[in-house]
Amino acid sequence: MAARHRAIYAVRVTARQEINVALLMEAKAKVSGLKVFSILVPPGVKGYVMIEAQGIHVVQELIRDMKHIKGQVSGLVKYEEVERILKPAPVIEGLSEGAIVEVIAGPFRGMKAQVVRVDKQRNEVVLNILEASYPLQVTVPADYVRPAKQGVTYA
What we know:
Blueprint: E1 7-13, H1 18-32, E2 36-40, E3 48-53, H2 56-63, E4 69-72, H3 79-86, E5 100-103, E6 112-119, E7 124-129, E8 137-141, E9 145-147
Antiparallel strand pairs: 1-3, 1-4, 2-3, 5-6, 5-9, 6-7, 7-8
């Protein structure tokens, strides 16, 4: 029955202060005895903190006179939207042959590479290291790469 009254609200905060604000909110909720069930700082979403609380009045009481608060987003945040934000997309799904990637782990960390082949069953990619002085193909787990920033071209 108590779960029916829970809702998720979004609060705008100063960018890069999300964790500080969440910690301040936690302390204020404990001291004040407010019905706050969870405070979420979504990864990859700058400037927002999500609060699961009993009602909008609880959120307004929580953020009143708090530093780094820009305002409250009107309306509720749906659970499906929170799931979509929190569930990471598999890296291998976004990779295709010819894509430029950056190696983020292993012995070739920090190097740019071009995808030669993608093996989704084994969760591996075959890469051609672009920064090597000779053609060098390596096979690495898909978790070791991330797509390179757009607009960067290599010959």
